[in-house]
């Protein structure tokens, strides 16, 4: 999987602007969402089931999570 991740296209939210405190996701993997720190593209990658990541994004957008 590491080889597949190095060849994939990563993207970050347009809301990130040019900020450095961002995550990037790869969307080309069925049933999972790889996530990495944009400041460390060679660093570790976390993978989440696609439904769990979608639920997380929905919770963030709705304000259900109190993030600082």
Secondary-structure blueprint:
Blueprint: H1 2-6, E1 10-11, E2 23-26, E3 32-37, E4 46-49, H2 50-62
Antiparallel strand pairs: 1-2, 2-3, 3-4
In short:
The protein is an alpha+beta fold and 68 residues long. It has 2 helices and 4 strands; from the N terminus they run H-E-E-E-E-H.
Description:
- The model has no long low-confidence stretch (mean pLDDT 85).
- The chain has a four-stranded antiparallel beta sheet with strand order 1-2-3-4.
- The chain is 26% helix and 24% strand.
- It starts with a helix and ends in a 6-residue tail after the last helix.
- The protein has one domain (2-62).
- It is of the alpha+beta class.
- β3 (32-37) and β4 (46-49) form a beta hairpin.
- It is built from two helices and four strands; from the N terminus they run αββββα.
- Pfam families: DUF397 (PF04149).
| Global morphology | globular
Strand content bin: 15-25%
pLDDT below 50 for ≥5 consecutive residues: which ranges? none
Q: How many helix segments?
A: 2
Helix content: 25-40%
Protein name: DUF397 domain-containing protein
Organism: Streptomyces tateyamensis
């Amino acid at each position: 999987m590491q080889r597949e991740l190095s060849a994939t296209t990563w993207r970050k939210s347009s809301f990130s602007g040019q900020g450095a405190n961002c995550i990037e996701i790869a969307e080309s993997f069925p049933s999972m969402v790889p996530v990495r720190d944009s400041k460390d593209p060679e660093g570790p990658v976390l993978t989440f089931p696609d439904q769990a990541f979608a639920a997380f994004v929905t919770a963030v957008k709705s304000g259900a999570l109190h993030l600082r």
